[in-house]
Prior knowledge:
Layout: H1 4-14, H2 26-38, E1 47-48, E2 53-54, E3 62-66, E4 73-81, E5 89-90, E6 101-107, E7 110-111, H3 115-120, E8 123-129, E9 132-133, E10 140-148, E11 153-158, E12 162-172, E13 179-184, E14 193-201, E15 211-219, E16 239-245, E17 250-251, H4 254-257, E18 266-270, E19 273-274, E20 291-295, E21 302-303, E22 308-309, E23 320-324, E24 342-346, E25 366-368, E26 386-388, E27 395-396, H5 400-403, H6 406-409, E28 418-419, E29 432-438, E30 443-449, E31 458-459, E32 469-474, E33 478-482, E34 492-497, E35 502-506, E36 513-523, E37 526-534, E38 543-547, E39 550-552, E40 564-570, H7 572-579, H8 587-601, E41 609-616, E42 619-626, E43 631-633, E44 643-645, E45 650-652, E46 664-667, E47 672-675, E48 679-680, E49 686-687, E50 690-695, E51 702-709, E52 718-721, E53 724-725, E54 727-731, E55 735-740, E56 746-754, E57 757-767, E58 784-787, E59 792-795, E60 799-800, E61 806-807, E62 821-825, E63 832-836, E64 839-844, E65 847-851, E66 857-862, E67 868-873, E68 876-883, E69 892-900, E70 905-909, E71 912-916, E72 921-928, ...
Parallel strand pairs: 4-6, 5-7, 6-8, 7-9, 8-10, 10-12, 11-13, 12-14, 14-15, 15-16, 16-18, 17-19, 18-20, 20-23, 23-24, 24-25, 25-26, 27-28, 72-81, 80-82
Antiparallel strand pairs: 1-2, 3-4, 21-22, 29-30, 30-33, 31-34, 32-33, 34-35, 36-37, 36-43, 37-40, 38-39, 38-41, 41-42, 44-45, 46-47, 48-49, 50-51, 51-55, 52-53, 52-56, 54-55, 56-57, 58-59, 60-61, 62-63, 63-64, 64-73, 65-66, 65-73, 67-68, 68-69, 69-72, 70-71, 73-79, 74-75, 75-76, 76-77, 76-80, 78-79
Helix pairs in contact: 7-8
Amino acid sequence: MKYTEFYFLFILFLFNKCSSGQKLIDFQYEVIVNFTQNTGQSSLFPIEQSLNYIDFCNTTSFICLTDATSGESIISNIIYQNTVNSAYILTGSDLKNLLKLTEVTLKGFSVDNYFVSEVCAISFELTLNDCKLLGLSGLITNRVVINQETVPLALTLDLSQFTSLSLFSLIENGDNSLLNIGINNDLLSTNSEFVELFYVTANNIPDLTNFYVDGLTLSINSFFSPTPNYNNLNTFTNVDYLTFICNGNNLKFAPLNQMKNSKITGVSIISCNFDSVPTNYSFSGFTNLQSIEIQDSSQNFLNHSKNDLTLFNFQKSVSSFIYVDGELPNFNNLNELGQFKTVALINNSINSILPSFNPFKTNIRSLIIKNNGITGTIGEEYCGVYLNVSNNLLTGKIPNCFKCSWSTVHYNFNGNPGLINFSDEEECTTMVPNIYLNKAEGYLYVFGTSLGFSSFPFGIPQTPNNFFICNLLIPNFLYACQYEPSVPYPNIITLEHYNGSNFTFSVDPTPPQVTIVNSINTSPGNISYSFTGSYFGYNYSITNIQINNEKCNFYRNIDISYSKMNCSVISNFLNNNNNNNNNNNNNNNNNQLIGSYRQLKYPNLPSNYMKVSITINGLNQNFTIRSDSLVNPVISCGSCPGYCDYQIGVCQSYCPEPTCSGRGTCDEPNGWCICNVEYTGQNCTLANQYASSFITAPVSGGNVTIGGWFGDIHNQLQVLISNQQCNVSSNSSDTIICSIGSLKPGIIDVTIIQNNVTWVGPKSYILNPEVLKCLNGCTNKTNGICDTTTGTCNCNTGWYGNDCSSPFNPNNNGGGQFPSTSTTVNNNNGTTSIINDKTNYQISIPQLLELDVNGKVVRSYSLLKNWNYNQTSNNIFVFNQIITPSGSSTSFTVSYMIEEITAPKNFSFAGYNFNLDKGSVKISLSVQNYPYLSSINNLQIQFESSVSLDGEEDCNTKDSSIDGTGNNGQELLNFVNIQKDSKTLQARFLNKILSDGKPTTITSETVSTNANSVVIGLNLPHCISCIIDPDFSVLINTDFQTSCDDGDGKRASYIIPVAVISSVVGVCIIGTVIFFIIKKRREHRLFKSLSSRGN
């Protein structure tokens, strides 16, 4: 309740005080008459003869107000001293019916036990000065202040009495032996009380369990126990600020220094005589400590051998340090206190020279070193702190930054007779404000020099929906004003300083706009110019004006404002010529001389024109105007995307080709074209080439066909494959044919150079060996034969799988049924589930990525939960989504189709043949018209394959495992396997694709993997239309058992292949799921596994 007093003064101001002769409301009049009669002092109050009543409102003992509701006079304040009948005992009934009392102050009365609690019910604040209390009973609320000056008082306070209390104060003034106050904690463990401020003179350290208090002050006097209960300090867990006032009495320091408390933010120690203060004390148990105040009249905290403070080791959270009444005659090192934001060294007999220091190398923002004997002068560096050096021996001038806030800080320099400009009416010449509006965070920053030292010195236009709350960050230099960024704010802000100065700013950085130029010859060779316009600012140090390449000089900050600038040009040429013409100094001769000078510097410029260049904080305005007139209007073009030719008032473009050849837009005012992704060059005339497909030559060498985009201009065309020149034989806008020598198989980089533009395709040319390997060598010759031209196994009769390792119709010792299989398509996310017995495989396409040349993701798109579903037939499921990348105006379409194959089909892809049987699932994904950020970027489409167990475990239950062959450019086919419960999901990736209708090669990679899933990324070229071909197969392994209770313990061998094949328009992914279902004897019962392995 720091501002409570001001609040009540404001309320008093709002009401009209009763004038003399205006009678109180009847029932209050009767109460006051009885009150004054009971105390024997009614004769002290005059009777208004004309109205025949006592005019209480016209005295200093009663303050009356006009009630806003009834319009009658009521008493709001009582300030009453008993000087006659001290034996009369006040009770609450003496002041009954005095509703709406603001404050009651009584002195010299005897009061009964319940007086305080009863008056608290009708008054906001009660003050008892030197009254005789017969006790203190009942609930105490609002604000109660009890000051004892001569009357002793002994009683015990119960903590349960204090409820919803803003202030309770029971202290003695002067005498150190009046109050003998005990504090009893009668709060139940389930109850708690909250008090804002609790000041009490106590005879022991109280138990404050469940007692919440913002500010606690414990004063110690002669009644304080010689054996204090220091253990009770550990109950102060709900105290925010703790003050000990010892009045010179003894106290042990160690228990205080060893307290453990995370709530206390501030500690004040006033006039305590400690037994000893250890070196390097820290109060480390106060983990949230922010402020420390020490009034060291006993000088316990001094290192007497060094006339300095005892070393301390406060935690970094402490930001305020106040030390009073010590002896520090030689103290001169402020860096020792650099961790604190506020430093106060008051009345410490410091008689050294005021040290120089850099406030920006410390945390000090407020420095109070008053009432010492400090000598020396005040340097400009002290403009960076709130400084109070009153009552010292300083000399010299007070820096002008303080003069700019003189009405609020002059008292900080009182008592220094040697300060020569203390009483001067000195003009503020160093105030330079600037603003920066951070619209994203909702902060207006006001920065500069000589701005102020405490509260915000400027008025800002406020609106009901946009109210600025400003705080000081760095004295004199920086304020931060928070506002609501969602509410629009004007483009122009005017700050009104309390000294009467106004400062206008543009919210957004805006180049200067000059409308009028005046010139005058002030002396030989010296011409002064005055510029009128807007968006100039107030800082001449960041302002540069050139007139015909001569600098126009500023001499004071007041020479520049938002709409006015005054500067002077001093030319050696003009001076030399004027020295020869001392007798002819009229304006006509000067103008003629200036014209001759311009002819020397600008031979093509007419003599009656001058070139002006104005740069303010990096923003520029250039114009050419007539110089033979004292007033030169500048012709405005209005709003220009480029720049204005002020001589003719016509907008011009900064770009040499304003239309950018119709293939881009001009970036004004930088003056270059931002070309569409397919073009580059100053005017967007050159192709921003890229390659999207390669028809490779044999390993021994030959012709290479490169598809892509290469434009119509092919100056100095070069193609490098693995840093080997590929000799170009023909080329067009979309095809390059070149001849290459022998190359080693692998993944190879390609570089295409033309028109001084270089395109690099890392790992884009994949050259397979002429003899390809098959997966696991097709197991052995009994199982299958490897086709070395394709890397595919041709399985012999009775064997299946990509490596022919699974028998189609094994001998299962008596026969039986194999586990049945079902396929499910999720209409929400397009996920395909393949469920075989208790094993559930899921295949999905989670996301599409755009990658830069280094493989870094520049944009990503989640595909799972954004599909729009449409079922076109019983066995075809279609999903699609239209995506607009952030910051782009172009959309692209992703389509996804799942088809269940109902009859056998043959497929051929990029020269690779395969069959799909009934029960297969064909998956197609297309991406069309993707808007790349760069011509060197490419796409990656990701597949996720996962496995889970539905139901209880049995003898087939096994942990999941994942392995793969990878893609090193040595195989046409690459495989990834997920094994679970004697079944395998096998993913096969063909590295041949069709890119924009032409065959080329790609790589695949494992993006992530865990025990139950794997994510595979297929790296596509920079394509407009790509078709790719992975497939997936589910196999039953040879150790799968159809019946878990087989007596001989043998396991049957089965295979259930499932292929997923994708074919696409745009970016198309073909996937099939094939189940070869072999009848087997179904298991008769299941085991329940002891642990959930594999999940």
